[in-house]
Amino acid sequence: MTAPSALGRWQRPLCTTIVYAYVYVILEWLFFATKQSFLTRFSILDQLLVGLIAPLPIAACVAVAFGGLWAVARLAPRSPLANGLLWLSWWLPSGIAVATLLLFFDTFTYTTFGVGVRTTEGGWRAAYSLGLLACTVGVQVRMIRRSRTAPAGSVPRGLCTAAIALIGVSLVAVSVRETTCLGEDGTASATRPVQKRLPNILILSGDGLDADSLSAYRYDRATTPFLDSIKDQALICENALANASATAPSITAMLTGKLPTRTRLIYAPDILVERDSYEHLPGILRSLGYRSLSITDRIHADVSRLNFRNAFDRVNFRGPPGGIEQTSGLDRLFLTSATSCMGARFASELYFHARMRERISNRILHLLWIRDMEDPMAEVVDPEQQSMGDAERITAVLDFIDVSEPPIFVHAHLYGTHGPLYASREAVFKADDAPSYSTEAYDDAILDFDRYMRQIFEHLKRAGGLEDWLIVVTSDHGKKWRSNRVPLLFFFPRAAPSGIRVNNCQLLDIAPTVLDALGVPVPEWMQGRSLLVKEPDPLRPSFRIIPGAVEYDLETQEVWKHEQGPPFHGMAFLSATICHKNYRMNLALNEQSMRVMERYRAKQTGVDPQQDRKLHRSGRITVLPVKGHTGPCDPKELPTPLEAQEILTRHLESNGYDTSGL
Q1: How far is CA 116 from CA 258, 330, 367, 506, in A?
Q2: How high is the pLDDT of residue 324?
Q3: Domains, the chain, ranges and CATH?
Q4: pLDDT (tens digit, 9 = 90+) per residue, 200-232?
């Protein structure tokens, strides 16, 4: 039996590591809880539960690791091996301590002085790296010396009592967390349809594409010559509408078949939580054997940041070809049949773990010259500083297709058409002295999108033909985040079916349509409808949320903001498009939001809003026609503004929002 002194020698680093792990996680939790983050829109209780539960799996892993080291050391308690293992065990608490200090120091210097790990280069980077190594060794040596000077046979009771108490608090928090269960295998899944071969699937979306600016939708400039040449093979939605005016909630609606008002993902840094993290099209396709890739940007549409779990194999160049990027070890544990409820129950904690790993690993990899820390915002707002442009995205798509075994699922979102600056490889419509935010620059960016589309189609033809591909071409929202029509075209295998859908379609309908084409039952939790066999109901409301930042003026560098607290948390407006009319409800009727609404209508119509206020506004509702709509209804069939307000209010109430203040 191991002597008390030997046992105490192992208890000291074990308890130290657990306590340090709790300190590290709690400080990281404070970092996220005190800034605009995914925790912001959680209740106080849910925020606390994330902070209390998140350290528990780390403590469990530490206990298992120390148990293994101790078991090996028991085989020869007085040998050099036992002493070496004990010395090795002190690397864990020293590493956690140094990581804590690194994050604290870097966050402080970067937020205060604008200088941190990401800004270090050359000699400063080397000095920072050597300092980190010296600090790690120094902390470990100090810990070992203190343990050796402890009285013989002593057990660190205070330290171990603290560790046990912290674990006990975490276990209480686990018991408080509500149970949320998924399907039998703990994820969104489907039975493989009875057909010999599943088609490959590509969803290609461009940012901020107005259908009215595509020649495929009768624009007077030839902005989409390739799409024009193949559109007869497609099922074209003449009047397709986005379900959000921002990229993150719009793409989430596209991939989940759920409205933002249900998932509560309104704008970054909102995330999917609980079962919504696992109920989505990529998860269903994975259960059918699809290999999958998501290529977007790392700020607004990164599916890992949005907390899509068990979704894509590769996300924005992360994860090896054929590897599983989105399913971590904890995910695989929580998605076993024995723990089918745990993945949804602890989705927020899993996301918190991923963000913690990202924060520390990005800094360490930068200091070790393995991978530079990047500014992901540059990929979106400044084309000249993009670290991953559309050409790289297309290359990644084609490379993934070439090396992956079918069936394959790819979602690629391109940003050349993202405002306020538009990027293209060649100026066709824009004069040399025209600004990069002009209409001509926008048209050139659309033409570039069309060229990328041609590149993909021709590559697929050379690789075996388009007969095995289901391709969707669309956009996340209209130009400048407006409620204009967006393109939506489905190219089914062997061009069947093809034709036109005139009644309003939504991005919400993409996932159900894809599943219907595969012969897979559409799950009840999807709110969209398949467009495969018939026209949608012309009077079906197409709901759309508008987050707080609704407009950006490049010339004045002014962002029109509409801040909103509870109960709508960042949702400034909610609209319902019924046939050719858009009914937009202001969720906070105050002077600031009224000015935003007036300026919005002036931008849309070109008419002084003060002159037509009585015509277009009734209470909280602004009514505007959908630009370019090709299937207008009889005005007698349309709701009045007050009836539209009732429709919108009922929609909010059905999704759990408190509308007593409206």
Answers
A1: 40, 31, 11, 44
A2: 40
A3: 4-176 (no CATH), 200-337+376-536 (3.40.720.10), 543-654 (no CATH)
A4: 999 999 999 999 999 999 999 999 999 999 999
